[in-house]
Amino acid sequence: MARDLAAALAGGCVGGLSVHLQPIVTPADGAVAGVEALVGWHHPERVPVSPAEFVPVAEAEGLVGPLGAFVWTAACRDARTLSETTGRRLFLTVNVSGRELDDPHFPDRVLATLAATGWPAGQTVVEVTESLVEAESARSVTALHALRGHGLRVAIDDFGTGYSALARLDTLPTDYLKLDGSFVSSITTSTRRARLLRSVMALADALDLVLIAEGVETEEQARVLTTLGCPFAQGYLYGRPQPVAELVARFAPAGVPV
Ligand code: G
Ligand code: MN
Predict the structure, then answer these.
(1) Are 16 and 43 in contact (CB under 8 A)?
(2) CATH of the domain at 111
(3) Which one, of 100, 97, 179, 172, lies nearest residue 136 by Cα?
(4) How far apart are CA 176 and CA 156, in angstroms?
(5) Into how many domains does the chain fold?
């Protein structure tokens, strides 16, 4: 896999790697407000490989630099296309891996990609997981501060699963909290879960964090989120990760050239 990945990233030939965008909406009206960039790999001779499998390989093989460059460039370019064709001021979120964030050149590389693609820093969100920053290398935290200094925002991904340290919500420079789908899927199963969600929203509010509910799959879940005033939601109910052309076809007013 390491060899194939290196080949895929070499010399501009991206052999099956692609970046898809998943809509992030305001649940009250379903309008698209942003997109999350998700990398996928459809190797010609294999079943599709998930980032959970190949990102660790990229990390171990020293390929996160080229992988990150590919993802950021495609994400910014496609987000710009979607923003322009829909006439909406969308935000773009991009997942960052541990090694990527720990690279001292990371902030400069991101800023260079924003400049090259013409995508605004103020509409860009870096998604990090708690476990990733758990290592909490001083460099990772410095990188997040540096990017925020340039107008980017930071989201904590997968919140509410595994080992969530509340103290980290205080120590990390954070703007968005992404509530994990495994929690969202349970909010309609009991009133206690719904109340737990309400408490998480109060927590986010108290810390000036904006909540994004992930993995929304049913109308019933969407109704609960709307009732509780959750600002943003994402999930198969609103759209799968898909190529930008499909999102343009769906969200752009008719007659807008791509
Ligand atoms: O860790 P992170 O939240 O960035 O992972 C996003 C992953 O979740 C992607 O692989 C994406 O395809 C998947 N995903 C997105 N929306 C849904 C959903 O509504 N249900 C499920 N089961 N998975 C989803
Ligand atoms: Mn994510």
Answers:
(1) yes
(2) 3.20.20.450
(3) 172
(4) 6
(5) 1
In the predicted structure, residue 157 carries a pLDDT above the cut 80: yes
Q: Is residue 79 part of a domain?
A: yes
CA distance 129 to 108: 21
Residue 38 CA to ligand 1 centre (angstroms): 9
Best of 20, 21, 22 to mutate for ligand 1, by most ligand atoms within 8 A of CB? 22
Q: Which domain holds residue 182?
A: 2-250
Across 127-137, b (16+ Cβ under 10 Å) vs e yields bbbbebbeeee
Are 256 and 90 spatial neighbours (Cβ–Cβ below 8 Å)? Answer: no
Confidence of residue 190 (pLDDT cuts 50, 70, 90): confident
Q: Is residue 112 part of a domain?
A: yes
255 in any annotated domain: no
* Chain segment 220-237, per-residue pLDDT in tens: 999 999 999 999 999 999
Residue found under tokens 């891996």: 97
